Amino acid sequence: MCALRVSNVMSNHIEPIRCGTPLTEVVKALLENHISGLPVVDAERRLLGFVSEQDCIHALLVSNYHCEGDPIVDDVMFREPLSISADLAIVDLAQKLGSGKPKVYPVVENGKLIGVVTRTAVLGELARIGCGLELSKQTSADD
Predict the structure, then answer these.
(1) Which of 20, 52, 55, 71 has the least CB density, counted as fewest CB within 10 Å?
(2) Chunked mean pLDDT (size 10), the chain, 143 residues
(3) Measuring CA to CA, how many Å separate 104 from each of 51, 64, 118?
(4) Could you list the residue range(s) of the whole structural domain that residue 115 is in?
(5) CBS domain: from which residue to which, for each copy (predicted)?
């Protein structure tokens, strides 16, 4: 199990959010990808922030109440996101996961986003390896 790395369970098919994206498009991406948060990147895929469902809910409530129009992701994203390396052992990541910790981690290599790993993906892999569970391939990247 120690040989399992983040690269074994990360998703690289989910498109990150670009700066300047309207929050309604961010919400659409979250819902379509069944994920609780997404990294925010620049044109070169450098990680600039992270936006979660919680960020969107609060911002949409405020903007709707005050009739301020559609905010953009830059207005609500967390600007100091935690990221991890694709080489990080799954066991080490699993020990970091806990209450109050992110449910989705951006995976960065050479300063650029290469994927995301979710708590659900880690749980599935640990169950498959440790318990011998036969699980179908993840179709959802939810937390």
Answers:
(1) 20
(2) 84 95 96 96 97 93 77 95 94 83 93 95 85 52 53
(3) 10, 27, 4
(4) 6-131
(5) 10-68, 77-135
